[in-house]
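Need tokens for this chain, all 249 residues.
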Amino acid sequence: MIVYPNAKINIGLNVLEKQADGYHKLSSVFYPVNELFDMLEILPAKHFSFFSSGISIPGNSNICIKAFELLKADFEIENVTIHLHKQIPIGAGLGGGSGDGAFMLKAMNTLFDLKLSTAQLEEYALQLGADCPFFIENIQKYVQGIGEKMSGVDLDLSPYELKFIFPEFHIATDDAYGGITPKIPGTNLMDLINQPIENWKGKVKNDFEVTAFAKHPQLQKMKEQLYADGAIYASMTGSGSVLYGVFGR
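Here are the structure tokens for all 249 residues:
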């Protein structure tokens, strides 16, 4: 079985509160980006194996392995061989790793006919990471809490074109959160999202931009360039470092 885990962008990202367990409560709109994707092949096998190609993945483990181990612990399933071809940049704020983990869960649910519901898959996904549950349904959502509270959003960007700038460096999540001072914004994010896209500039904000732009001034110049090129709205996604612009077609 081959699946294609896609990326996402954040439209607005407010860091509201730091919990005692170290996680942060957020509010953001997650929007799937199907133009950017990885390739994930899972096949039943006598012995478990994992290998990757494409962009190099740091560390000794991988979220796809963790997803397999989660389900293996609860179900009598065969071993598998996994091949992940990585194309979504790492440490970019595009949710590439989260998508890989969630798509691994969905693929195994189908491959082994586990009959897990969407809600059950989301519960497993949350054990992998805060952004993972979004990729189970993989449709635009207003996300709250640490990522586990999701509700539908009436937002369609298909009439527009998304353009990306991929800096040659990434921003570690821990470093990004280290510079953040959580606060409740004066205006609810959904009240802003429900306005015409032409009104988003300067209002729909990613809180991570403040510290990211201070440390990497070239990111702010890249965002300004997107606007200079005609973007209706531009932003850094997630905790960075990728920037995107929404353009009219």
